[in-house]
Amino acid sequence: MADKSIGTESLASKKVKKVTRRLRWAFVGTGGISGTHILALQQIPEVEIVAGCDILADRRAWFLQQPGCQNAKVYADYREMLRKEKIDVVDVCTPNGLHCEVVVAALKAGCHAYTEKPMAMNPAECAKMCAAAKKAKRLLGVGFQYRFHAATEMCVRAIRDGLIGDILYVKVHAMRRRGVPNWGVFGRKELQGGGPMIDIGVHQIESSFYAMGEPKPVAATGNCWTFLGNKPSKVVSCWPGWDYKTYTVEDLAVGQVRFANGALMQIEASFCAHLEHDTYFWELMGTKGGYNWNTRTISTDLAGTMLNAQAGFLPEQNFGSLFVLKLQNFVDGILKGTPLRAPGESGMAVQKIIDGIYRSAEKKGAEVSID
Ligand SMILES: NC(=O)c1ccc[n+]([C@@H]2O[C@H](COP(=O)([O-])OP(=O)(O)OC[C@H]3O[C@@H](n4cnc5c(N)ncnc54)[C@H](O)[C@@H]3O)[C@@H](O)[C@H]2O)c1
Description:
By secondary structure, the protein is an alpha/beta fold. It has helices spanning 32-41, 57-64, 78-84, 99-108, 123-136, 150-160, 189-192, 196-212, 319-336, 344-362, and strands at 23-28, 47-53, 73-75, 89-92, 112-115, 140-142, 167-175, 217-225, 252-259, 264-270, 279-286, 289-292, 297-302, 305-310, 368-369. The protein binds nicotinamide-adenine-dinucleotide.
């Protein structure tokens, strides 16, 4: 059996799981991120990978060589896969523009649906997906792994224990100096819904929003700029040679969202911007204390002193181990009724924040309301 340890989990806490039922799992989209899902699923014995669908023959061939996929069936058309295979879970790893269509079809076919982030292109699509899940009485989960991060959980505990007080302001950073993906379709607005705000801002938004307790967003302002990504570049960078000719998304987006409880979230996200270094984190300020996700530090006043209390220990995690946690939560939701940490409704609330910023940017930064 695969090693089931996560980070620094002690050997003493390891238990051999008794698996009573294995979920029949199928992928739609067997590109880059499906590989991380497949590896994570090797650590979840309640899952059996039975099928994969991709429009590209080389991706189907690649899929069949992945661990646990050798006996799976492959398809070029997901509708044919849904018709022919007996599937419990459809895991959607396509570009964003297909998440809604595939999720709705999977739910209608009686499967549970899990979709990669962002949930969809816009809130209207999210609403369709949630309604389809409700109608089908199936679970819909969204691939928000950063709410499983130990630094996010530490903040949740600090808030729960009253160390932060009322949350006033959250600053969210998802900034790359020069990091336009040179694979996939990340520069194409018609297939992705937007650029860095929807693609990487979403990670920092979903986790900070979760820590805040998911207050209702009511209004947004924002601006978007494109000034580098749509031009050829000879500058040395980590992912050179992106397709600048089809690049229609923003390079840099900055927005502010107001919540019903009066709190504000400011978000900055970039694929390219002239800044000293990349930043991916958020910080939160309340009436009693603050929290910095990056340094895992609670800032408060104690013993007549402004004190910074940093975590002495948090479990070690990496990108892959966060995927194990997020997928295990979905599996447990199906098999044991465990509450989902990222259900469709939460994905829709995050999408409303992103969409509010994009809508405001289209109106030259005028405030827009969020329903
Ligand atoms: N959670 C995370 O940290 C994370 C990281 C990377 C990507 N993602 C998300 O995962 C999704 C996919 O990203 P990726 O990096 O794997 O992109 P990718 O381009 O590598 O893979 C997408 C795959 O979908 C396939 N596809 C396209 N149309 C299809 C269709 N009609 N039917 C079946 N397959 C189809 C493509 O051929 C491709 O192989 C995106 O929504 C992205 O935002 C999430």
